[in-house]
Amino acid sequence: TQLLEQSPQFLSIQEGENLTVYCNSSSVFSSLQWYRQEPGEGPVLLVTVVTGGEVKKLKRLTFQFGDARKDSSLHITAAQPGDTGLYLCAGRQTGANNLFFGTGTRLTVIP
Amino acid sequence: EAQVTQNPRYLITVTGKKLTVTCSQNMNHEYMSWYRQDPGLGLRQIYYSMNVEVTDKGDVPEGYKVSRKEKRNFPLILESPSPNQTSLYFCASSDAPGDEKLFFGSGTQLSVL
Known about the structure:
Oligomer: heterodimer
Shape of chain A: globular
Shape of chain B: globular
Strand content of chain A: over 45%
Largest sheet of chain B: 7 strands, mixed
Mean pLDDT of chain B: 93
Number of helices of chain A: 0
Strand content of chain B: over 45%
Low-confidence stretches of chain A: none
Distance between the termini of chain A: 37 Å
Largest sheet of chain A: 6 strands, mixed
Number of helices of chain B: 0
Low-confidence stretches of chain B: none
Largest interface: A-B, 26 and 25 residues
Protein backbone atom coordinates (compact mmCIF):
# COMPACT_ATOMS: atom_id res chain seq x y z
CA THR A 1 0.00 0.00 0.00
CA GLN A 2 1.42 3.36 -1.06
CA LEU A 3 1.17 6.05 1.56
CA LEU A 4 1.60 8.82 -1.00
CA GLU A 5 0.03 8.69 -4.45
CA GLN A 6 1.20 11.03 -7.15
CA SER A 7 -0.67 12.00 -10.30
CA PRO A 8 -0.22 11.95 -13.12
CA GLN A 9 2.38 9.20 -13.35
CA PHE A 10 3.61 10.49 -16.73
CA LEU A 11 3.28 13.93 -18.25
CA SER A 12 4.54 15.13 -21.62
CA ILE A 13 4.00 18.78 -22.51
CA GLN A 14 5.27 21.45 -24.89
CA GLU A 15 7.72 24.10 -23.78
CA GLY A 16 5.88 27.12 -22.41
CA GLU A 17 2.86 25.24 -21.08
CA ASN A 18 1.81 25.18 -17.43
CA LEU A 19 1.33 22.01 -15.41
CA THR A 20 0.38 20.77 -11.97
CA VAL A 21 1.49 17.60 -10.24
CA TYR A 22 -0.44 16.25 -7.27
CA CYS A 23 0.64 14.29 -4.20
CA ASN A 24 -2.21 12.80 -2.17
CA SER A 25 -2.59 10.74 0.97
CA SER A 26 -5.17 9.78 3.55
CA SER A 27 -2.52 10.31 6.24
CA VAL A 28 -1.43 13.53 7.92
CA PHE A 29 2.19 14.61 7.57
CA SER A 30 4.22 16.96 9.75
CA SER A 31 6.21 18.00 6.70
CA LEU A 32 6.32 17.32 3.02
CA GLN A 33 9.22 17.60 0.61
CA TRP A 34 9.53 17.69 -3.17
CA TYR A 35 12.55 16.25 -4.96
CA ARG A 36 13.60 16.21 -8.61
CA GLN A 37 15.61 13.33 -10.00
CA GLU A 38 17.45 13.34 -13.31
CA PRO A 39 18.57 10.19 -15.16
CA GLY A 40 21.62 8.57 -13.60
CA GLU A 41 21.46 10.72 -10.47
CA GLY A 42 19.89 10.66 -7.05
CA PRO A 43 16.95 12.87 -6.07
CA VAL A 44 17.73 16.48 -5.19
CA LEU A 45 15.61 18.39 -2.69
CA LEU A 46 13.60 21.30 -4.12
CA VAL A 47 11.54 22.42 -1.14
CA THR A 48 10.17 21.50 2.29
CA VAL A 49 6.74 22.67 3.48
CA VAL A 50 5.70 22.29 7.11
CA THR A 51 2.57 24.38 7.71
CA GLY A 52 -0.93 23.55 6.45
CA GLY A 53 -1.81 25.88 3.58
CA GLU A 54 1.81 26.96 3.12
CA VAL A 55 2.85 28.13 -0.33
CA LYS A 56 6.49 28.33 -1.42
CA LYS A 57 7.86 29.57 -4.71
CA LEU A 58 11.10 28.61 -6.38
CA LYS A 59 11.37 30.68 -9.59
CA ARG A 60 8.70 29.16 -11.89
CA LEU A 61 7.80 26.39 -9.43
CA THR A 62 5.03 26.87 -6.84
CA PHE A 63 4.56 24.35 -4.06
CA GLN A 64 1.51 24.16 -1.82
CA PHE A 65 0.84 22.09 1.28
CA GLY A 66 -2.83 21.23 1.80
CA ASP A 67 -4.69 22.81 4.70
CA ALA A 68 -5.14 19.42 6.35
CA ARG A 69 -1.49 18.46 5.66
CA LYS A 70 -2.56 15.37 3.73
CA ASP A 71 -1.71 16.53 0.23
CA SER A 72 0.50 18.81 -1.78
CA SER A 73 0.80 20.18 -5.29
CA LEU A 74 3.60 21.38 -7.51
CA HIS A 75 2.75 23.89 -10.23
CA ILE A 76 5.23 24.79 -12.97
CA THR A 77 4.63 27.91 -15.03
CA ALA A 78 5.97 28.14 -18.58
CA ALA A 79 7.76 24.80 -18.46
CA GLN A 80 11.26 24.57 -19.92
CA PRO A 81 13.13 21.51 -21.26
CA GLY A 82 15.40 21.81 -18.22
CA ASP A 83 12.38 20.96 -16.03
CA THR A 84 12.35 17.44 -17.48
CA GLY A 85 12.83 14.81 -14.79
CA LEU A 86 11.18 12.62 -12.19
CA TYR A 87 9.40 14.58 -9.47
CA LEU A 88 8.97 12.88 -6.11
CA CYS A 89 7.04 14.02 -3.08
CA ALA A 90 8.06 12.70 0.32
CA GLY A 91 6.25 13.04 3.63
CA ARG A 92 7.24 12.61 7.23
CA GLN A 93 4.68 11.73 9.89
CA THR A 94 4.92 13.29 13.34
CA GLY A 95 7.48 11.50 15.49
CA ALA A 96 8.57 9.20 12.66
CA ASN A 97 12.13 8.72 11.49
CA ASN A 98 11.05 7.46 8.09
CA LEU A 99 10.44 9.61 5.05
CA PHE A 100 7.74 8.08 2.81
CA PHE A 101 8.18 8.74 -0.88
CA GLY A 102 5.44 9.09 -3.44
CA THR A 103 5.16 7.02 -6.60
CA GLY A 104 6.70 9.77 -8.74
CA THR A 105 5.68 11.85 -11.78
CA ARG A 106 7.88 11.63 -14.85
CA LEU A 107 7.77 14.97 -16.67
CA THR A 108 9.01 15.50 -20.22
CA VAL A 109 9.06 19.02 -21.64
CA ILE A 110 9.35 19.02 -25.42
CA PRO A 111 11.21 21.96 -27.00
CA GLU B 1 32.75 18.89 -2.12
CA ALA B 2 29.91 17.59 0.06
CA GLN B 3 28.78 14.28 -1.31
CA VAL B 4 27.46 10.78 -0.79
CA THR B 5 29.50 8.20 -2.70
CA GLN B 6 28.15 4.80 -3.64
CA ASN B 7 30.04 1.97 -5.25
CA PRO B 8 29.69 0.30 -7.60
CA ARG B 9 27.42 2.23 -10.00
CA TYR B 10 26.46 -0.94 -11.86
CA LEU B 11 26.55 -4.54 -10.67
CA ILE B 12 25.44 -7.75 -12.34
CA THR B 13 25.53 -10.88 -10.22
CA VAL B 14 23.97 -14.31 -9.91
CA THR B 15 21.48 -15.64 -7.41
CA GLY B 16 23.02 -16.51 -4.06
CA LYS B 17 26.37 -14.77 -4.47
CA LYS B 18 26.92 -12.44 -1.53
CA LEU B 19 27.55 -8.80 -2.38
CA THR B 20 28.13 -5.49 -0.65
CA VAL B 21 27.28 -2.02 -1.91
CA THR B 22 29.33 0.63 -0.17
CA CYS B 23 28.16 4.09 0.84
CA SER B 24 30.28 6.87 2.28
CA GLN B 25 29.46 10.48 3.16
CA ASN B 26 31.87 13.32 3.93
CA MET B 27 29.46 15.70 5.69
CA ASN B 28 29.68 14.24 9.21
CA HIS B 29 25.97 13.40 9.00
CA GLU B 30 24.46 11.35 11.78
CA TYR B 31 21.57 9.91 9.78
CA MET B 32 22.04 7.52 6.85
CA SER B 33 19.54 5.44 4.93
CA TRP B 34 19.20 2.97 2.07
CA TYR B 35 16.36 3.03 -0.48
CA ARG B 36 15.44 0.95 -3.46
CA GLN B 37 13.67 2.46 -6.46
CA ASP B 38 11.38 0.40 -8.66
CA PRO B 39 9.13 1.63 -11.50
CA GLY B 40 5.73 2.76 -10.27
CA LEU B 41 6.67 2.25 -6.62
CA GLY B 42 8.81 5.30 -5.92
CA LEU B 43 11.55 5.04 -3.32
CA ARG B 44 11.12 2.51 -0.53
CA GLN B 45 13.30 2.56 2.57
CA ILE B 46 15.29 -0.59 3.33
CA TYR B 47 17.24 0.31 6.48
CA TYR B 48 18.29 3.47 8.24
CA SER B 49 20.78 4.46 10.90
CA MET B 50 20.42 7.28 13.42
CA ASN B 51 24.08 7.11 14.44
CA VAL B 52 27.06 4.79 14.83
CA GLU B 53 26.02 1.28 15.92
CA VAL B 54 22.31 2.25 15.69
CA THR B 55 20.38 0.74 12.79
CA ASP B 56 16.71 0.01 12.22
CA LYS B 57 14.45 -1.57 9.62
CA GLY B 58 12.64 0.48 7.03
CA ASP B 59 9.68 -0.65 4.95
CA VAL B 60 11.36 -3.43 2.93
CA PRO B 61 14.26 -4.89 4.99
CA GLU B 62 13.88 -8.57 4.04
CA GLY B 63 16.98 -10.00 2.37
CA TYR B 64 19.23 -7.09 3.36
CA LYS B 65 21.69 -6.32 6.13
CA VAL B 66 23.48 -3.12 7.07
CA SER B 67 26.15 -2.03 9.51
CA ARG B 68 27.27 1.33 10.88
CA LYS B 69 30.67 0.86 12.48
CA GLU B 70 31.86 4.34 11.49
CA LYS B 71 29.90 7.55 11.08
CA ARG B 72 30.82 8.06 7.45
CA ASN B 73 30.13 4.53 6.12
CA PHE B 74 26.89 2.58 5.78
CA PRO B 75 27.31 -0.53 3.60
CA LEU B 76 24.34 -2.52 2.29
CA ILE B 77 24.85 -6.28 2.32
CA LEU B 78 22.89 -8.85 0.34
CA GLU B 79 23.85 -12.23 1.84
CA SER B 80 22.03 -14.31 -0.79
CA PRO B 81 20.71 -12.09 -3.58
CA SER B 82 17.59 -13.12 -5.47
CA PRO B 83 16.16 -11.81 -8.78
CA ASN B 84 13.46 -9.81 -6.95
CA GLN B 85 16.27 -7.68 -5.52
CA THR B 86 17.09 -6.40 -8.99
CA SER B 87 16.59 -2.68 -8.53
CA LEU B 88 18.15 0.77 -8.39
CA TYR B 89 19.57 1.43 -4.94
CA PHE B 90 20.23 4.80 -3.32
CA CYS B 91 22.10 5.71 -0.19
CA ALA B 92 21.21 8.99 1.50
CA SER B 93 22.36 10.98 4.49
CA SER B 94 21.25 14.01 6.49
CA ASP B 95 22.24 15.93 9.57
CA ALA B 96 19.19 14.67 11.45
CA PRO B 97 16.18 12.49 10.64
CA GLY B 98 13.78 15.38 11.09
CA ASP B 99 13.02 17.93 8.42
CA GLU B 100 16.57 18.22 7.22
CA LYS B 101 17.63 17.93 3.64
CA LEU B 102 18.46 14.42 2.46
CA PHE B 103 21.58 14.10 0.31
CA PHE B 104 21.50 11.17 -2.11
CA GLY B 105 24.23 9.21 -3.80
CA SER B 106 24.16 8.65 -7.56
CA GLY B 107 22.69 5.19 -7.27
CA THR B 108 23.70 1.56 -7.82
CA GLN B 109 21.90 -0.39 -10.53
CA LEU B 110 21.86 -4.02 -9.42
CA SER B 111 20.81 -6.92 -11.62
CA VAL B 112 20.51 -10.40 -10.07
CA LEU B 113 20.32 -13.16 -12.67
